[in-house]
Amino acid sequence: MVRKSGVRSLHCADTLEGIRLDEFLAKKLVMSRSQAKRLVSDGLVTVDGRNRSADSRLRGGEAVSLSPRLEKAPGWDLEKRVLHEDRDLLVLNKPAGLLMHPLGATWLTNPEEARWEPDQNLAGLLQTLRPAITAAGVPRCGIVHRLDRQTSGVLLVAKTRAAYERMTGAFKDRMISKVYRAIVLGVPAEHSTSVDAPVGRPPGRRLVTVTPLGKASMTRVRVVSSCGAASLVEARPLTGRTHQIRAHLAHLGHPVFGDPEVKVPAGLPLPPRMMLHAWRVELDHPSSGRKVRYEAPVPKDFAVFWARLRLL
Question: How far, rounded to the nearest angstrom, does the alpha carbon of residue 227 sit from its chain's CA centroid?
Fold first, then answer.
């Protein structure tokens, strides 16, 4: 592998003779075929110095070069989504649909890979619009925790290595409090309850669910409002397991609207996405140590969907 002026070069081995260009890129870069096709169609890929179509076959021995996408991504206006920023901390209101970082793990050792698709992932946006974070050597482009692609809301980004270490340590020690809002099917019998059940991926399953093979997890749930068919709830995770809130609400018998494993009953509107929003985060500021709280108002699609349900 060779890098020059931000360009990445990959060698196609003779043993890969006949492989499609998009398939080769997907294999080497650990990405989907559709992502690879987009790189090719956007003119970021050359084979021995020439542009080729995504379905062209490689003969083996070629040099496949990729140029990073360095311009500001058009899809997300990061500046309008800043809830707070200082020397050490950036707090964003993440939009639904934005990935945290590219799929796979190669971007961790080669962060510039995130800039090939900056409008598709936060790591690419941060490298483009907050380059000082990467220049300072902050791991993971400063991303200290994750929100799923379909989840909107408050997201913390460390701008210095010291802030990154303090916040990741605080997350590990469960010193950072997070509160989500979700629209769920039905009305819970209890106004407030706790779900204490292990979550994980059972063998042969793609999605996280409650399983005795999972890791210990606990979520506190409180009903904020309800109508005949649905409820608006607050979910406070006391542990930080992947997809914990979705799995626990489903286990409670009140799955989040948009849960891929739950069919919306007839007569109810279809949600535009998973109706889950990271509403509030409380923590000790990584430099001052004082208690701070950041909130992100629910986005329009969330509010509109809840309003539709209340009219039924």
Answer: 30
| Predicted TM-score (pTM) of this structure | 0.77
Tokens at residue 200, please? 């994980």
Let me know: does 155 contact 144? Beta carbons within 8 Å: no
Among all residues, which ones are annotated catalytic?
148
CATH superfamily of 177-278+303-310: Pseudouridine synthase (3.30.2350.10)
Span 159-214, pLDDT tens digits:
999 999 999 999 999 999 999 999 999 999 999 999 999 999 988 777 889 999 99
The structure tokens 């993440």 sit at: 94
**Residue 138 φ then ψ, to 5°:** -75, 125
Q: What is the pLDDT of residues 16-31, one digit of tens each?
A: 999 999 999 888 876 7
Match domain 2-66 to its CATH number in 3.40.1260.10, 3.40.630.30, 3.90.550.10, 3.10.290.10.
Answer: 3.10.290.10
| β-pairing verdict for 45-47 and 63-66 | antiparallel
DSSP code at position 227: -
Q: Please give the helix or strand (H or E) that residue 200 lies within, else none.
A: strand 199-200
Domain ranges of the chain: 2-66, 78-173, 177-278+303-310
State the Cα–Cα distance between residues 253 and 259, nearest whole angstrom.
Answer: 12
Q: Do 78-173 and 2-66 fall under one CATH topology?
A: no
How far apart are alpha carbons 134 and 79 in whole angstroms?
18
Going by CATH, does the domain composed of 78-173 fall within 3.40.1180.10? no
The token pair at 62 is: 């070629």
Q: Are 133 and 124 in contact (CB under 8 A)?
A: no
